[in-house]
Specification:
Helix content is about 45%, strand content about 15%. By secondary structure, it is an alpha/beta fold. α6 links the parallel β3 (about 120-125) and β4. It binds pyridoxal-5'-phosphate.
Amino acid sequence: MKTFKQAERVQTLPKQFFASLTEKVQKVVNEGHDVINLGQGNPDQPTPPHIVEAMREAVKSPGNHKYSPFRGLATFKEAAAEFYKREYGVDINPADEVAVLFGGKAGLVEIPQVLLNSGDTVLVPDPGYPDYLSGVSLSGARMAKMPLKEENHFLPDYGTIPEEDLQKAKLMFLNYPNNPTGAVATPAFFRDTVSLASKHDICVVHDFAYGAIGFEGQKPVSFLETDGAKDVGIEIYTLSKTYNMAGWRVGFAVGNKSVIEALNILQDHLYVSLFGAIQEAAETALLGPQKCVDELVATYEKRRKTLIDGLQRIGWDVSAPAGSFFAWLKVPAGFSSVEFADLLLNEIKVAVAPGVGFGEHGEGYVRVGLLTSLERLEEVVKRIENLKLFDK
Ligand SMILES: Cc1ncc(COP(=O)(O)O)c(C=O)c1O
């Protein structure tokens, strides 16, 4: 059998750091150990039953067995607009300010393809969600990293971005509540972002994947709530986390209509839209009862308390996340993030994601997903206590 050579654009894609983590974890599982895997970001609970029921009904409809309309169902785009009005008080025109996406990931990878040319500059958070790098790599653009530091509450410090990068930048990725740090943005930070973006003609892409998940009663702010945000950017929303629909692959982009049009043109070439039944079920998710979302946030909040209080009790000096379903924990002195993650996996069979996998500024931390039961999180604390790493 011949082996065909991969195109350069495939060969130069960034290494999937987390594929090697998954392999390491699987090896320990295969050895028969009871691994508690907190290394991934896959919601552990099922989609709420009323959404599954809406899907069941929608599947029966012959209209959904045909190609769905290019650019998605009008009713789904109207639902997205109504959701933004209800949740954030933001006016969105469903006709030209919404693009239907096969999940947020697809939109994030498509954006650089539709806005950048080879050699253009993109501002990317470090640490950050690895898929920003994938899209940038495919487009042949150049990345300028914006460090997210604890002393700045994990927000980029725009004052430290080199002038040359600001002059050249065409695109900026942001993500709050943040994966991996759990930080949230403030309205003032988003106002500064709009000013910077207008001054330098930068398109802002705000990834709002964890938009529903804020703790201690704090609802995360949408970038589009900021005056002038639609002039300079878009927000990407996914149903994966808010409604435990990660497997369904459904999301949307909202905001600046020139960017929405560019996304839609590319998608006209790549796909017909999502299965109509999924879009109809997504309408039910967005417009139906939202009690499931409150319950989800309450569940994550209890888990957060169990984990963080437990770790603090055994002497590990950790901070609680303000949003998302991740905790970002500083590794004890003397370990790199990979060494510490390896220690937890090999010694106590707890998998966490080493911070360096999210970028060089993630070094010194591990990311822990709040994606298992309270009992298992208590067990994690117990196993870590048994390592006797901390003075109480
Ligand atoms: C920060 C962030 N953005 C986007 C996504 C993509 O979500 P999806 O493609 O399921 O919509 C994820 C998923 O883990 C994420 O963590």
